[in-house]
Amino acid sequence: MTPDLMRAGAERMATARGRTGAVLQEGPDFRHGVALYVEDISVSFDGFKALNDLSLTIDVGELRCIIGPNGAGKTTMMDVITGKTRPDAGKVTFGSTIDLLQLKEPQIAQVGVGRKFQKPTVYEQLSVVENLELALKADRRVRAALFAKLTGAQRDRLDEVLALIHLKDQGTRTAGLLSHGQKQWLEIGMLLMQDPVLLLLDEPVAGMTDEETERTAELFLSLEGQHSLVVVEHDMHFVEQLTEGRKTVTVLHEGSVLAEGKLADVQADEKVIEVYLGR
Ligand SMILES: Nc1ncnc2c1ncn2[C@@H]1O[C@H](COP(=O)(O)OP(=O)(O)OP(=O)(O)O)[C@@H](O)[C@H]1O
């Protein structure tokens, strides 16, 4: 890990401590450079193993793409990390100290894990800026002050996020009038307002135009290093853009890791070709 990332990890650790003071005694500890440990997770639905001894590790600031055929367990994995599904066995640890399996969904979000579902869910009647403001105030304690003025720092963050998500000129636009891709960016922006350590993104470019997909790749690459990103995606061109020929890709199959490595290597792997790419 670079000194910059170490510093970012330490800063996040302090932020997370502040955030979770009411929930947890200790904040997450990222000193090992690891954002998330998933260890030997198994999930069964009526005897069918959706996850089967799944293990993987995501580093602080890493951008990891997860690919795999339909039914491989990708969504179930995200459900376990975010507390929606309780596994039958295994461990999920945020940093090196926080046992996510002991936390409820809202606490997991509060500790710094953000999730983007496949469909955009923005407030269609509100403007772009109002959507971002709401995300900032999603914390129930400040919801009462919904229309209170933002602090200078919050205003700066909002402007920064607007630029990041390519909606700088669309701040006053009603969200319902945005294109599908712009709605997806807005929802990502809403997550960013809460400054998550780890972002889970489920098929973020499904339904996007080629240009929107390209700009989404640029967005994710600009977030890498500042956040850990786990991107589940079937669009191989997009995965290629994100991995830049050097990053690790994880291939899931039947609820466990079938292969892990550089995209070119997993694409050449006979097992992967047989179950996924060769179809
Ligand atoms: N609540 C549930 N009850 C029963 N079976 C389930 C449930 N959720 C998922 N499954 C099954 O578990 C397996 C893994 O599903 P999951 O949605 O995690 O796969 P996936 O890799 O996300 O697939 P896709 O690429 O199609 O989204 C599938 O066979 C699915 O039918």
Automatic annotation (TrEMBL):
Tell me the Gene3D superfamilies matching this sequence. P-loop containing nucleotide triphosphate hydrolases
**Which CDD domains does its entry note?**
ABC_Mj1267_LivG_branched
Reading the lineage from the top rank, the first entry is Bacteria
Keywords of this entry: ATP-binding, Nucleotide-binding, Transport
Q: Which InterPro entries match?
A: ABC_AA/LPS_Transport, ABC_transporter-like_ATP-bd, ABC_transptr_urea_ATP-bd_UrtD, BCA_ABC_TP_C, P-loop_NTPase
Matching Pfam families: ABC_tran (PF00005), BCA_ABC_TP_C (PF12399)
| MF terms (GO), sorted A to Z | ATP binding; ATP hydrolysis activity
- Keyword RNA-binding (UniProt): no
The UniProt entry, under PROSITE patterns, shows:
ABC_TRANSPORTER_2
- Single GO cellular component term: plasma membrane
Q: Where is the ABC transporter domain?
A: 36-279
* SUPFAM superfamilies noted in UniProt: P-loop containing nucleoside triphosphate hydrolases
Q: Which PANTHER family does the entry link to?
A: CONSERVED COMPONENT OF ABC TRANSPORTER FOR NATURAL AMINO ACIDS-RELATED (PTHR45772), HIGH-AFFINITY BRANCHED-CHAIN AMINO ACID TRANSPORT ATP-BINDING PROTEIN (PTHR45772:SF8)
Q: What's the protein called, per UniProt?
A: Urea ABC transporter ATP-binding protein UrtD
